[in-house]
Amino acid sequence: MSFIVNRRDLDFLLFECLGIESLFETARYEGLDRAMIAGMFDMAEAIATETYLPWAATLDAHEPRFVDGRVEIMSEVGEALTAYADAGFFAAGIDRDLGGLQLPYVVTMAINGMFTAANLGIANYSFLTIANANLIAAFGSAEQKQLFLPPMLEGQWFGTMCLSEPQAGSSLSDIRTRAELQGDGSYHITGNKMWISGGDHEIAENIVHLVLARTPDAPPGVKGISLFIVPKYRVSPDGSIGARNGVELAGLNHKMGHRGTTNCLLNFGEKGETVGYLVGEPCKGLSYMFHMMNEARIGVGHASAMSALAGFLYSLNYARTRTQGRSTKDKSPLTPQVPIVDHADVRRMLMAQKAAVEGAQALSCFCALLVDQQKASRDAAERDELGLLLDLLTPVAKSWPSEHCLEANKWAIQVLGGYGYTRDYPVERLYRDNRLNHIHEGTFGIQAIDLLGRKVRMQDGAAMDLLLRRIGATIALAHDGDDFAAEADALAGAVDALRRATDAVVQAADGETGLANATIYLDAFGHIVIAWLWLQQALAAAEALDQGSSDRAFYEGKVAAFRYFFRYELPLIHPRFELVRSLDTTCLDAGAEQFAGV
Amino acid sequence: MSFIVNRRDLDFLLFECLGIESLFETARYEGLDRAMIAGMFDMAEAIATETYLPWAATLDAHEPRFVDGRVEIMSEVGEALTAYADAGFFAAGIDRDLGGLQLPYVVTMAINGMFTAANLGIANYSFLTIANANLIAAFGSAEQKQLFLPPMLEGQWFGTMCLSEPQAGSSLSDIRTRAELQGDGSYHITGNKMWISGGDHEIAENIVHLVLARTPDAPPGVKGISLFIVPKYRVSPDGSIGARNGVELAGLNHKMGHRGTTNCLLNFGEKGETVGYLVGEPCKGLSYMFHMMNEARIGVGHASAMSALAGFLYSLNYARTRTQGRSTKDKSPLTPQVPIVDHADVRRMLMAQKAAVEGAQALSCFCALLVDQQKASRDAAERDELGLLLDLLTPVAKSWPSEHCLEANKWAIQVLGGYGYTRDYPVERLYRDNRLNHIHEGTFGIQAIDLLGRKVRMQDGAAMDLLLRRIGATIALAHDGDDFAAEADALAGAVDALRRATDAVVQAADGETGLANATIYLDAFGHIVIAWLWLQQALAAAEALDQGSSDRAFYEGKVAAFRYFFRYELPLIHPRFELVRSLDTTCLDAGAEQFAGV
User: What is the pLDDT, as a whole number, of residue A598?
Assistant: First the structure.
């Protein structure tokens, strides 16, 4: 049993539910087929299992250290990343004309999910590099692409994203890092950047930082932010590595999880000239970043699902093999103890994990497929529609897993009991790792304001209409049979509650009041989307069962998890939407001095 | 601002809400007064702040190590415990005739809460010693009391509880450790014990283990378990320390949190004769343990509230001082950033913490007061009634905080954002520490079966009737005014839902089916109890406001948190009780092979 991927489930999701094979009929993805994808998955699973997974606990216990101005990291990290690079995974999602394999995002995400589940601390270095390369590929000049992309796609140079500063975390408008134009067209960069994952190390020959900064004449706020390429070592026009640039590691953050990945405070231009190169046009930096943000946010949600998947698979295996206690029907101490999977509450904890993990995976993959469909479509109207849906669902895809898959990790620990609380078992580490996903790439609260303050209102609610139409179609499909009619009704009722809550907020006279419960709204909105995706999974499973599939346990498990979600989770949205609809201001009204009375 | 206790709130809870001064009118607690208690609190706060708190992060980072058969622990641990001992806190709750101060449990719990909030890793050693001493005081022979209690009450010897074994965690009936009677009336103990907190160290001169074991002729199961005193060093009749007993440290567990407390695998009798002394009568060991269990379980719930209180106070202070972003009404980047406490969602996260922490504290203190009232009462019928209520509420007092105060710690991290995820701030440690409370002293699932399988059914539901009568009285009181009528109605509706769900389960033909959703029931049951305690707090706050108290912010904050709980949390019980009432078997029916389909 693998603890990093459930291949059977991945096949079900991608091919039986989402039908990603339809992508292969488009010009962009022609030439791909299911067997080829399976081969990629085989390779990824093997490399992740052999070179990532064995070091997960060790790397967590021996995090990178800042010694004499250098970062010391376990050598196995570099070796694992070399194996990843040798397999061509750095370039897997990049367009063919830039030297990549042009695989769909839904496929590269699934591949990278195995590395996340196996050893997040190592995997982060490659994910940041790929995100960076994607951005240069999209907005860099021909020269920048030629200079920086090839070594990144080969995994020789790594990349980072430098957004936050000590005084500007969620509030990017307050970025102060400065970029001053030089005579040769380059810029000098000065400032401090915070929370830079992979910000320094010696695993790669060079590190390509993408840095948000302001030119002296730029307008205040987000409209004055530009994007710069700032390499750790300067690069000659022939691509060879030159002198050290003035990017300096000021310190490492020591985190609760994600310990294998360096997280850095970087100083630019304090101890030496720091050369940077403008990407695209001045003052468009944030829009370039946001262009990549959908994928990055879907990726965070998916990473959360993967940490939870690893915990789920591990705790499932434990529950099947660990004996403890007896059935309520035969408590005699003379009978042997039973595997704990036989206890009702252990089953509940496993089912809660399955429902969250496989629901979240479905959400991530559905959103990734929207990215691919948008890229592949030749119809402008269709592209707009896909883009709208994607924009609407992105905050959900980022946030729902970060909340509910963290909860799944909590249950994985609980299944193992005291053992789960020790560092001898992976479940506590996975829980610690997963806690970050609530915070980075836009906190839960930020996503909520994005959804309720912006996305549901876009183009007079066009994105919402699109989503609800799609959900309505699935409900209608479910009503065609008898098996899921009750759940179809429940989902219709949930959609109705969503509509009423949304209307109340959109019509609220005061914007602040309307947004006061945005996080509650986001969470309940997510439940509806996940319920919808579970209904789709159940319909696909029912069809397979009807057709006499021999794989009955798998499909019956799908239907069971679907029922679990509808019975245990979906009903919770009603009090939540009621609260949102009432425009409750309990929290908003509380004065800062009231919380402790001191 | 203190980060380990909110003295204003503690006073409110103990004196204004619970009226613990009525205890001082009983013979058992006569001589105590409020000023004396305040003096104790002052001393506890000072010692906890000065000798415990400064080492919390260091001890977490430098956990005890097993080196050459010995345990190495930071010397500050022993020094802190000496300060605790010198203040007389080891003996604070012990009866006067045994050399203690005979303080009520509700007072010693509040004292110990400050040490928990300051540095749980150190505090655990004393708590285990006190629990151990309480048990010897209750069931030990005169000689055992004379021999073991004085050095424990002075903090020279420490104590442990040795229940679990590798094959018997939650299932105590499977304990195998053997005790064989010797000619001198002592026993030889052989076996392995697991998860023994404070199981070995050199902080104290001796360690007194209380060990569950079986005599050779004992019946199988829990009815054959006896309790033994097994000291690390043998003790001469004059109380002097003799030769090493055969209790041997086999290894330390390395945990996610609680890192400062050694957690041991102990071998008894493998490398040398291990002498033990029977406590009380043979085969009554478990009943002795369970006699102490109410207090131990309330204590775990309270510890959970204290970890969350520390996180709440820290994140509140952070939110008031950290500036980031701007109001939704003035987003201009030219205006200064605002303290994050001004953001609606930050207020929600603070209010969620306040509602959970202060609700849980009220529950712990209410239950501790029941313990004291039971001890102080001279009326047998009253004692029975208090005992019934206490038995019913114990699983709730253990479990509700372990779930919802862990959630509070999650929000404390979120308030600090990326900073909260680093080990430079205490909130992530408090979250890791708190995760254990879901597991030890009976898991959440075990408590749920205790509540729904046993406690609500006791004496034909007598305990439930008692609780619901008390809740009804508070509802009636709230109906006397206008301010809280809506909440009183909501609580009455919740009680009705509880009743119907309970009836459905109790009447279920099949016990396993009825218990399948016991954890959901326990959680929702807890919400009702907490709502009831919040209504009591609101009534007390309203009265103070009516009387023109100058402390308006404090009391208004109480009413705000009460409203928060009733609006955001209480309504969630309805779908949960609906589920329980429907006797849903989704989880129970899922086969072990269905979870992953592999």
Answer: 63
